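Supplementary Methods S3. Complex input for the heme C-bound model.
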Amino acid sequence: MPVSWKEVVLGCIVFGAAAGGALLVEANVPHERSGQILEGSHLPSDVRATFERSCQDCHSNNTYWPIYSSLPVVSKLIHDDVDKGRKTMNFSNWQDYSRGKKVGYLALIQNSLHTRVMPPAKYTALHFNAKLTAEQLDAIEKWTGQEMRRIIHEK
Ligand code: HEC
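Predicted complex, serialized as structure tokens:
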């Protein structure tokens, strides 16, 4: 049976609103993208993917600025967060950090995961797939330990 205009209009109203909302949340405008994060580390691809999905927006220069980040007020909040995140630890500058600094950051990463403060809840509320699964947590945990040992024993 062909779809009537009434159904089309109704569908647009119902799904249009949902699609509009989803677009606002998901349509991200990339700019300022730069090189690979955590350059110089021995990083398995699955752990890299997790950092890219859940951390790099705030802890690297590879920030995908969402459309709503240009809204007044929201813009300030998001830019402040990214600013603070990058200043605290920037995965784009990893190769420039001293060995001691890297080990310190790796320990902080472990700590931030244990306490579940990262990624921040306000971020995962909008980026559903940034929430870390138990497997991802385990993989990061394992990697941070390995990487610390590797750096400490590095000649
Ligand atoms: C929405 C932005 C955002 C995301 C996403 C994010 N962070 Fe953060 N992160 C911050 C900010 C902002 C700070 C600084 C916190 C402060 O100064 O209060 C921070 C601080 C940290 C610190 C330092 C904590 C300390 O005790 O000083 C670590 C480690 C960290 N983040 C790891 C991560 C990891 C790992 C991920 C991904 C799993 C992640 N962050 C995702 C914004 C973010």
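The helical segments are 5-26, 45-54, 56-59, 74-88, 99-114, 121-124, 134-153. Confidence is low (pLDDT under 50) at residues 22-30.
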